Amino acid sequence: MTDAGRDNRTGLADVRVLITRGGAAGERDAAEVRGLGGEPLLGPLTDIAPPADSGPLRDAAAAWNRGDYDWLLITSANAADAFAAAGARPPLGSESGPPRVAAVGTATADALQAHGFEPDLVPDADFSATGLAAALLERLTGSGLTFLFPVSELADRTLETALSRAGHRVERVTAYRTLPAPRDAAVESRVSAGEVDVILILSASAARETARRFAPLPPSVKLAAIGGPSARALAADGLAADVVADPHTVSNLLDRVAQLSFPSAPGGHPA
């Protein structure tokens, strides 16, 4: 969205927004909500943990540093952080050129850049595994390339299946685990009492935890999904997303939330 488009947003004045992830990412989300006049509530639904066995990730990082792969595939900021922590270094040039780095979207690209990795490819708009696969296949010629894919153990096979069908080899390695966060009775009480206006669904895991902890939701509570996979995860548990971001960024998601009506928000957010 252009800056002019942002200036014309309705805003989130007095809207109570549940942020469902923690850490630095959750704090950034909360700051953006505050910047739009909203009231963020931090209530992480998932935790990020190292792999049960970190050996394969360290080995993969060492192989990457040796130049054993043609491409690195990164589909989340968590994967970027975990891969760097395992000892991976930005690619160096060789006679055949440096290996390439692909990021699923702008937030992931930012996380890679924080570790010194400069992405060679980021989809123009569809910041999803499907969008990244399409962008890669449009750029690549021939077959037989090798891809390293450090990823959550819960990630689906969309990206690697598309590349494998095109004749490439994808080595998937668990970079981190996504686990349910401890339950927070105070947050759950506020949601059930209708004291939250919108819940940000930022992953399929968060969608599942939303259904497990909060359903049935009060009719006034809106669900805002970061992308299609999160919306589908909600639907699988009988919940419907009121808005879905496209492109799949938190900023775009909040743009869409700002267009909703929240008559129950303190101070009466305009319809």
Write the layout of secondary structure elements.
Elements: H1 3-7, E1 16-19, H2 23-35, E2 39-42, E3 46-49, H3 55-66, E4 71-74, H4 77-85, E5 100-103, H5 106-114, H6 129-139, E6 146-152, H7 158-165, E7 169-180, H8 185-192, E8 198-201, H9 204-214, E9 222-225, H10 228-236, E10 243-244, H11 250-257
Parallel strand pairs: 1-2, 1-8, 4-5, 4-6, 6-7, 8-9, 9-10
Antiparallel strand pairs: 3-7
Helix pairs in contact: 4-5, 6-7, 9-10
Describe the overall structure.
With 271 residues, the protein is of the alpha/beta class. It folds into two domains: 3-45 and 181-257, Rossmann fold, CATH 3.40.50; 55-178, Rossmann fold (3-Layer(aba) Sandwich), CATH 3.40.50.10090. The protein contains eleven helices and ten strands. It has helices at residues 3-7, 23-35, 55-66, 77-85, 106-114, 129-139, 158-165, 185-192, 204-214, 228-236, 250-257, and strands at residues 16-19, 39-42, 46-49, 71-74, 100-103, 146-152, 169-180, 198-201, 222-225, 243-244. Helix 4 runs parallel beside helix 5, helix 6 runs parallel beside helix 7 (158-165) and helix 9 runs parallel beside helix 10 (228-236).
Question: What labels describe this entry?
Answer:
disordered N terminus, five-stranded parallel beta sheet, Rossmann fold, 271 residues
Q: What is the rounded Rg?
A: 20 Å
- Morphology call: elongated
How do the strands of the widest beta sheet line up side by side? 2-1-8-9-10
Gap from first CA to last CA: 22 Å
Point out poorly predicted stretches. Answer: 1-10, 267-271
